[in-house]
Design a protein that fits this description.
InterPro entries: Ribosomal_Su5_D2-typ_SF (IPR020568), Ribsml_uS5_D2-typ_fold_subgr (IPR014721), RNase_P (IPR000100). Belongs to the RnpA family. The protein is an alpha/beta fold. The chain is built from three helices and five strands. It has a five-stranded mixed sheet, with helices on both faces.
């Protein structure tokens, strides 16, 4: 059948974020912006624990049917393409944008994998304002 996994494919186990305090804690972490979603990442400083992921789709992005479809597409992209790249001991929250519905699955999976694998850039010291030279 079309949906079955072959023996050469692997599923990567990724835990789930379920409670509001877990989601709120991740908001304090790093943010990686993309065209289809925002990825929030938090290092829990527990390298022996598995990575956990949560999904957020706000009500402004359509009715329940559309929001659930967005969530299902993101979950499947993580399961098939990005789970292996998630670092142990990290929490990830994927905040969907409306374009998730219209993008091809390959495009969605490629961007998700790219955002998960992206490492933070080092910021300059200071308050972020440009310097007057």
């Amino acid at each position: 059948m079309a949906g079955e996994l072959t023996t050469s494919e692997k599923k990567y186990a990724v835990g789930r974020l379920k409670s509001r305090p877990q989601f709120l804690a991740v908001r304090e972490g790093e943010k990686r912006r993309g065209g289809l979603f925002l990825l929030e990442v938090l290092d829990r400083k527990e390298p022996d624990s598995q990575a956990r992921v949560g999904f957020t789709v706000t009500k402004k992005h359509g009715n329940a049917v559309e929001r659930n479809r967005m969530r299902r597409r993101l979950k499947e992209a993580v399961r098939l393409h990005a789970g292996f790249a998630m670092q142990p001991g990290h929490d990830y929250v994927v905040v969907a944008r409306r374009d998730v519905l219209d993008a091809s699955f390959q495009e969605l999976a490629a961007e998700l994998k790219l955002r998960v694998e992206t490492r933070p850039k080092h910021r300059r010291s200071g308050d972020g304002r440009p310097r007057n030279v």
